[in-house]
Specification:
alpha+beta; three-stranded antiparallel sheet; two-stranded antiparallel sheet
Length: about 80
């Protein structure tokens, strides 16, 4: 079991959701967007499955915040 985490798009800090999952449960999560409250900026964030990960380490592919990655993609 490992903690489900994501990056706060406002601060770039890692947010622990408080959910512990195994790899199978993580893979089986619905692809729906979930609204979670952020302890770093006190704002709600929309968490998409593709922007979350399990465990302590930030995956290399997620080293850039989801917001900045989305903005870069929109610029082309």
């Amino acid at each position: 079991m490992a903690a489900l985490k994501f990056l706060c798009p406002k601060t770039g800090d890692v947010v622990d959701t408080g959910f512990d999952l195994d790899a199978t449960s993580f893979a089986d999560l619905p692809r729906e967007i979930i609204r979670l409250s952020c302890p770093h900026c006190d704002e709600p964030h929309l968490l998409a499955h593709m922007s979350a990960w399990l465990g302590e380490l930030l995956p290399a592919a997620s080293a850039e915040s989801p917001t900045s990655k989305r903005q870069r993609d929109l610029r082309g």
